[in-house]
Design a protein that fits this description.
With 321 residues, the chain is of the alpha/beta class. The protein has 2 domains: 56 residues, Arc Repressor Mutant, subunit A; 242 residues, 2-Layer Sandwich (Nucleotidyltransferase, domain 5), CATH 3.30.420. 40% of the residues lie in helices and 11% in strands. Strands 1, 2, 3, 4, 5 and 6 form a 6-stranded mixed beta sheet that branches. A hairpin with a 5-residue loop joins strand 2 and strand 3. Helix 2 packs across helix 3 and helix 4 crosses helix 5. It is elongated, with a radius of gyration of 28 Å. It comes from Desulfobacter hydrogenophilus.
């Protein structure tokens, strides 16, 4: 007979059975006879079997709520930031308080703890001092309400100095073209992913109008870049299997969440502008050697003014840095 005992067990199954089968004996006498503490005797008297129980927690605790996990995934995809910077970004944009280890566990659960660096994924030199490249993403986010369309979030990241822009909108080409024209640095090209659609049981892919949903199909971005004389590159590192896993996790989150409580999840463009301004002008990043994105851009302007369309100006309006 094969017996599995915990490494710190002080009794055998036979001794445990003896304890349970002799209720007439006192706790003190049983403890003395078997050579264990009285606490051990009482524990096995109250059990109906003689097997060790698992020491694994029945419910693994996490400091992150389901909604917070979704927001961290969005930040990771949009900013492609390391752990230290991502910790600050998630706090700045969504007021998420968690440890560095907790953040890393979250990224591992969604299989995005390691993402290929942009400079290794594109055929461009991202350190080109004559200008910069923009990294574009579009997210279809569930509204968590029945009969409500998905929330469309578009993000734009400057690959050189990490300046960031985002907007809840349905005009994909306008969002992108407006920032290309108003950006202080000369834009050399656009790097983009396929739209990321995170859907729930209330939002099916067939219900999304691709032409007017802000999805920014490849053809639209390519035409815009050709019109502006820019390079463009379509990244395919967001594997379909990972997106499918994210959608499966989304369904689980919905079943575990209080939808009424989480109804106002994504916020407004007004609130988003304030958060973006705080990030661009007030948040020092490890990637930039503890400078803010605006400080790094301003320092670059003093040495390479010819790579700019105009001098970067501090302004509350984050659409025109």
């Amino acid at each position: 007979m094969k017996i599995r005992l915990h490494k710190n067990a002080t009794t055998t199954p036979a001794q445990r059975a003896y304890i349970q089968n002799n209720p007439q004996l006192s706790v003190a006498s049983l403890a003395k006879k078997i050579g264990v503490s009285k606490t051990t005797i009482r524990r096995w008297q109250n059990r109906t079997d003689v097997h060790d129980r698992s020491h694994t927690p029945k419910r693994i605790k996490t400091v992150l709520s389901p909604i917070e996990e979704i927001k961290i995934v969005i930040c990771r995809m949009a900013f492609r930031a390391g752990l230290d910077d991502l910790l600050q970004i998630s706090d700045s944009f969504f007021k998420i308080k968690c440890s560095r280890a907790g953040l890393n566990r979250c990224l591992r659960r969604y299989q995005i703890s390691r993402m290929t660096k942009l400079k290794r994924s594109v055929p461009f030199n991202l350190k080109d001092y004559t200008g910069t490249y923009l990294y574009y993403n579009c997210f279809h986010l569930p509204s968590f309400q029945k009969n409500e369309p998905p929330v469309v979030l578009q993000t734009l990241l400057d690959c050189s100095f990490r300046t960031f822009h985002a907007q809840y909108t349905t005009m994909a080409n306008t969002f992108l073209s407006d920032h290309i024209q108003s950006f202080p640095l000369k834009v050399l090209g656009v790097i983009y992913n396929d739209p990321v659609r995170l859907c729930t049981e209330n939002t099916e892919l067939k219900d999304i109008d691709i032409k007017n949903s802000g999805s920014a199909p490849d053809r639209t971005i390519e035409q815009l870049c050709k019109t502006c004389g820019l390079s463009f590159f379509h990244m395919d590192n967001l594997v379909t299997d990972i997106i499918s896993e994210l959608n499966l996790q989304m369904e689980k989150i919905v079943y575990q969440s209080d939808l009424k409580k989480d109804a106002t999840t994504w916020g407004t463009n007004e609130a988003l502008e304030k958060q973006i301004h705080h990030y661009n002008f007030e948040l020092p990043l490890s990637f930039l050697k503890q400078k803010t994105p605006y400080q790094a851009m301003e320092a670059h302007y003093t040495h390479f003014p010819n790579s700019f369309n105009h001098q970067p100006m501090a302004s509350v309006n984050t659409s025109c840095l």
